[in-house]
C-alpha cells in the first residue's frame, strides 16, 4: 500500500467506550479489552491485518480479518481511514454481529492523492492497468470485465487476498497460457525433451525400462 502509511507500523492507538478499550495497531491487529472486574471479562482479537478495502481506485480502509471465533465465524474489523489533525482512533461500532467498524483519523491521508492505488504499483502492473483502461475506452471489455482485470492487478500487487477459487483458476490459466506463441511452444518443447532424456538415463541407471510411444 501507500509507503507513507508504513510509518504507522509498530504503533498502536486506543479508544475507550463505556467498559471497553479498543486498540488498533496498523498492519498488525485490532483488539478489544473489557475493563471490568468480572471474572470472565472479555479480552481478545477482533481481526488481524489482511488486505485493503479499495473503492474507486482509492485505498479507503484496512480489513482486519480472522480474529477470535464468534459463533460460526471469525471476528473481523474494517478500519476507515479519514483525514484528521492527529493520529487517533476516533470511533468504534459493531454494524453487524462480530463485524466491527473503526474510524481512524490521520493527517497522512489528507492530501487528495495520498490514497491513490495507481502510484503504489510496479511499472509492469501500471502498464496492465493502462491496457485495461484502453480496452474499456475501445469498448472491447465491459465495466464488469474492467473491474475483474483491476481486481486481478490488485491481487497480484498483494493489496487484496485472492480467494481459493481464484488461485485455482489462475494456476490453470498459467498452464494454458504457456503456449501463446510458437516460440514459447518450441522453447518449452526443448526443455521437456531435455528433461525426458535425463529421466530416461536415471531410469536406466536403476534398471527400469522406459516404455513410451511416439504420441507421448
From TrEMBL:
Q: Ranges for the DMAP1-binding domain?
A: 117-216
MRH domain span: 10-112
Pfam families the UniProt entry points to: PRKCSH (PF07915)
The record, for InterPro entries, names:
DMAP1-bd, Gtb1-like, Man6P_isomerase_rcpt-bd_dom_sf, MRH_dom, OS9-like_dom
Keyword list (alphabetical) reads: Disulfide bond, Glycoprotein, Golgi apparatus, Secreted, Signal, Transferase
Major location (coarse): Golgi
GO cellular component, as recorded: extracellular region; Golgi apparatus
Source organism superkingdom: Eukaryota
Q: Where in the cell is it found?
A: Golgi apparatus; Secreted
GO MF, one term, reads: transferase activity
Which purpose does this protein serve, as stated in its record? Answer: Non-catalytic subunit of the N-acetylglucosamine-1-phosphotransferase complex, an enzyme that catalyzes the formation of mannose 6-phosphate (M6P) markers on high mannose type oligosaccharides in the Golgi apparatus. Binds and presents the high mannose glycans of the acceptor to the catalytic alpha and beta subunits (GNPTAB). Enhances the rate of N-acetylglucosamine-1-phosphate transfer to the oligosaccharides of acid hydrolase acceptors.
Self-association or partners: how does it assemble? Homodimer; disulfide-linked. Hexamer of two alpha (GNPTAB), two beta (GNPTAB) and two gamma (GNPTG) subunits; disulfide-linked. The alpha and/or the beta subunits of the enzyme constitute the catalytic subunits.
State the name under which the record lists this protein: N-acetylglucosamine-1-phosphotransferase subunit gamma
The record lists the organism as: Drymodes brunneopygia
